[in-house]
Write a structure and sequence with these properties.
RNA Polymerase Alpha Subunit, Chain A, domain 2; alpha+beta
C-alpha cells in the first residue's frame, strides 16, 4: 500500500489536490445552475432546392423555438445561434406540407429543444420562368389650353422579369411611378422607376426608366388630363 502511495499518489500531490478541488468546485457550480427555458423566433433555412424551382408563396413562415438548458447559457443565448433547416430536395411544382421537429433545429450545445411552432407549414412551388414585358408610363398633369399629350416614349420600352411561371405569365406590362407633366409645352424627359405589382416577380437588371412626354397643339379649351 505504501509503495502504491509513493508511486501514484505522492508525486505532484499538491497539483493533484488542486485539480480535485477545481473539479469539485466546478461540479458544485454546475449543480447549482438552475434550468431555464426561453422561446426565440428562428429563421427557416431552405436547403437543396432545385435550381429551376421558385417558392410560389408570398408568406414564408419563421419558427418559434423553445429551448431549455442551464440558466447561464439561456441568458447568453442569441437569436442568430438558432435556425431551422428544411430539406427541399424532393420539392416539385405544386403545394406541399412540411413538418418541423426538434431534429431540424440547430442550437448551441448543452441546450435541448422543447417545442417548435408551428409543427407544420405549407409552401407552394412553381417552375421559374422569364419573359419580357412592355413598360407603360403613368403620366398625369394639367396643361395649357390647346395643348395635349401627343406621345409618351419609354426607354427602355421593355424589361425582363423572372419568377414563378404562373405569376410571370399573368403579368402583361409594367408601369412606372406617376409622372406629373404639368407645365410641359413641347417635350420633356423624366427619370423614374418601373414597378411590377406582384411581390414574387423580380425585374432582371433593374434600371431607371427615361420617359419622354411629347406635347401637341389641338383645337379645344380643356387642357386637363
Amino acid at each position: 500500500m505504501s509503495q502504491f502511495l509513493r508511486k501514484f499518489v505522492l508525486p505532484n500531490f499538491g497539483l493533484k489536490l488542486f485539480s480535485l478541488g477545481l473539479a469539485a468546485g466546478l461540479w458544485l457550480v454546475l449543480a447549482r445552475d438552475p434550468v431555464a427555458e426561453v422561446a426565440l423566433d428562428a429563421p427557416i433555412e431552405f436547403q437543396h432546392m432545385a435550381d429551376n424551382l421558385e417558392i410560389n408563396s408570398e408568406h414564408v413562415p419563421s419558427a418559434q423555438v423553445r429551448v431549455r438548458g442551464p440558466e447561464r447559457l439561456i441568458r447568453s443565448l442569441r437569436t442568430d445561434q438558432i435556425h431551422v433547416e428544411v430539406d427541399l430536395g424532393n420539392a416539385r411544382p405544386g403545394e406541399r406540407t412540411f413538418n418541423l421537429t426538434a431534429q431540424q433545429v440547430r442550437e448551441p450545445r448543452d441546450l435541448k429543444v422543447v417545442q417548435v411552432v408551428p409543427s407544420q407549414f405549407q409552401l407552394s412551388f412553381d417552375v421559374r420562368a422569364r419573359r419580357e414585358i412592355e413598360v407603360r408610363p403613368r403620366v398625369t398633369g394639367q396643361f395649357a389650353s390647346g395643348l395635349r399629350i401627343a406621345r409618351v416614349v419609354a426607354s427602355p420600352e421593355r424589361i425582363a422579369i423572372t419568377g414563378p411561371g404562373a405569376r410571370v405569365n399573368a403579368i402583361d406590362f409594367a408601369t412606372t411611378d406617376p409622372i406629373d407633366a404639368s407645365g410641359v409645352t413641347v417635350s420633356q424627359t423624366f427619370i423614374t422607376n418601373v414597378y411590377v405589382p406582384d411581390p414574387l416577380i423580380q425585374v432582371v437588371n433593374p434600371v431607371a426608366v427615361h420617359v419622354t412626354v411629347i406635347m401637341e397643339r389641338f383645337s379645344g379649351s380643356s387642357g386637363l388630363h
